[in-house]
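Troubleshooting: if your tokenizer reports a length mismatch, compare against these two reference records.
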Amino acid sequence: MFRPKVPTMPQPTGPVAPPAVVEPNIITPGTPAPPPAPVAPVPPRSAVRLTPGTALALVGGGTAVVLVVGAVLVSLLLAVALTATSVAVCAVVIRSVLTRR
């Protein structure tokens, strides 16, 4: 039950063909490709025009994004600072307990 069983190598079934001989290909120079057809020029796109309302919306959206990202980063920094402070306080308490014994 606990002895490993080594799988047997399967034997090929049916006739086995000898490997085919691969002949090297001869590269012959081809005819040159015709020049590409001229492409019609694309008319330039008109510039995007911002109205005062859309500009104000863009500024407001950007400000909101900056404030949200800043709040998240500050909260992460505060969490790290609180964790470090609590670990330091625990280390001081444990050290003082161990030195009294």
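Reference record two:
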Amino acid sequence: MRPPPSSPSPSPSPSLWRDTDFRRLWAGQTASQLGEHTALVVLPLFAVLTLDAGAGQLGVLRAVGQAPILLLSLLAGAWVDRWRVRTVMVLTDAARAVALGAAAVAGLLGLLGLPALFVVAFTVGALSVLFDVAYQASLVRMVRRDQLVRGNSALEGSRSAAQIGGPALGGALVSLLSAPVAAAAGALFFAVSFVSLRRIRRPESVPERVAPVPERPEHAAPVRGRIREGLRFVAGNAWLRAVCLASAAFQLSFAATMTVYLLFLPRELHLTGATVGLALAATGPGALLGSVLAARLPGRLGHGVVLVSAAVLGNGALLCVPALHGSSTVAILALLAVNFVFGTFSQLVNVTVMSVRQAVTPDGMQGRAAATITFVGMGFTPLGSLLGGLLAQEWGLRTGLLVTAAGMMLSPVLMAASPLARLGRVLPGPAGGAAGPGRT
């Protein structure tokens, strides 16, 4: 009698770059990120340089664009769990292309005032919330578990590249040509993403529709029940609660800082739109370096040490900006260095936090946990933008920037006082043990 066959050894994971559908996802996501980062610079510069918006008006514009994060994040997380994510991504790309294209045409005709710009900012922001939640869930439904790290690395790399190219391109187009042309470039990127994502042919399953859990009423209940389940899970997890608090403190202060920052560069340092775009783009190479460091440092030094120290270094770098004067070469080089350092350590924090969230969250809760953390953390950005505009208006640009940048240091303080600071080189799993295979 023959012995039973031994279990076959797992086959080596094929290269993702040989997968046509993954290449289309990567290309579409890259183009979409370029469109988004271009728009994030073009719309405020349009308001400041073309419509002569004041500090308060710029704060309102940024708050309007960020309000969908607060209004839609939880709903987006629940909806995306029940939709085909590629359909969401394709439709939001098409709609963002139309919105920015309409803004470009109105701008060329001299019909785009601040009220219309508010509508465009809100529309693009709302669609971006849906796209971003869907894109975070897309890879899980497309590749094998042992390919997730490499897939995420590729997508994060393209996002970092967009942080380089988007602001630089947007600032250059606004400065050299016009804000409407820059808006048209953003619309073109979204159109390219639409075409690329539409060409993906792999069938996609929707987890909650394929494998419902009858004994859990939330799975059959309206969206409200699924949202509550995500909120309860995050609130009941000490690590995720700490992530929410630290993220909320950072995003509130960062939104205020960026509102003052976008006024400080052209009006206090007298930088052109192209130079502003170049300065903002310096965070991109830093983010690329931060992604590389995130693959090495937490496993060597411990996740807690990396989180706290990187947050101190990255956030602290922005405290140097209020000390800059004039548009000399030295000032511009210093600004580039500050943004590079900020990009490096901010990305190191972002990737490490994402690893913590993925490790302690069960597979069936990943989308809602991400949406809940986004809601709590990013939900404060509209208030931060309004606060930044108010401080710049009442206290002046230099003082306002110093105060808002100092506020960013609250985030590492909260992390240092939380269980996050005690995380070691091996992350806990969903049940509190070591993370198993397939987790970062």
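Descriptive notes for reference record two:
- The two ends are 44 Å apart (CA to CA).
- The CA atoms of residues 160 and 265 lie 22 Å apart.
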